[in-house]
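Please, does this match?
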Amino acid sequence: MRPHDAPHDLDHLFRRVSPRVGRILDQALADRAITPAQAETLFHAQGLDLLALLAVADELRRRAVGEVVTYVVTRNINFTNVCYIGCRFCAFGKPARSPEAYTLSLDDIAARAREAVAWGATEVCLQGGLNPHQPPSIYEDIVHTIKAAAPELHIHAFSPFEIWWGSRRLGISEETFLRRLKDAGLGSIPGTAAEILVPEIRQRLTRNKLSRDDWVRIVTTAHRVGLPSTATIMYGHIDGPAHWAAHLDLLRRIQAETGGFTEFVPLGFIHENTRLYREDGARPGPTGMEDLKMHAVARLMLQHHIANIQVSWVKLGYKMAQMALQAGANDFGGTLFEESISRAAGETQGTHTTPETFRRLIRDLGRVPQERDTLYRAVQRTPDAPPAPQLWQPPLVRQAATGVGEGLRVRPAPA
């Protein structure tokens, strides 16, 4: 059966899908979880199989979150690029003696937070290098500084690797450190430093960085103390479909346990200025088809677990981001203002997008733009308007069927 109101050419497409891929897509449309092995099969889809995958992902997106595409007005503050680790996939971190090294003062950070409020931001996002020349209390100092300067801002800050580093410098447990940061005003953490959560790939990316088990422990601890996080993947370097599927499966299992991920964000590898590409033989980032497959397969694997899939317009560019929003994604990300990490690696898409540009690009897709806050609650800018609805739903709550696409099958039922 074809989707309700779908054109006959789509029906014709579905009838020509290969049996193996068709069975997997039917399984997803019937709200049954797909396995990592099945996800790996979908990552290899080509031709009509790929078109059907994208159509099914878009259908599942519509069932999960409807036609709204969200975005957040946020400012990035990359407060230091001094880092002692030297990850081979990163061109942001610099030795302390580098002429390109910088560290913002607390006064600088406060000024940027006040500017963010003046620009209409509801969030600041902070990440930096692991700088041994800053005091051990720096992370708490930053949170206190921002809350004093701009108490209304949500602070989305400090990757699991920064949590690992900060807790060890203070000689306290990760849980105690996270609780102290939350008490100071931290609202959520970015789920970066994930890269690929497969040990043999992580070992080749960097020998000194957080292990898979460390990352999982810190993220689940953050969720337990009441700090939600994003979930990410960095793909398109020395990895492949089997690693991507395993990564998504692990995120799904974490979410089934904690419910703490607000969104999943695929991050394509930016290669130009990295040693991983120049010296270690990594690929020059993912292909356009891999970008679309990542967003689509994520929608199928994470359905009923992580409702929101975000595009990284910084990595993809506007046009490919629009394509990904037709392949399972539903969030355009943030305005950013002055993102530095991708730019250092060689990204050229820009460092700021206005809300007006987001709304134009979303309407161009025939979808409905909606500003949100960090926790996916709708932001209403008109003071006398009725309260805006809450957009984000607890991920473990299955939504009632809407009637949209019910009964859809990729391949006709056997006679």
Remarks:
- Residues 185 and 218 are 18 Å apart (CA to CA).
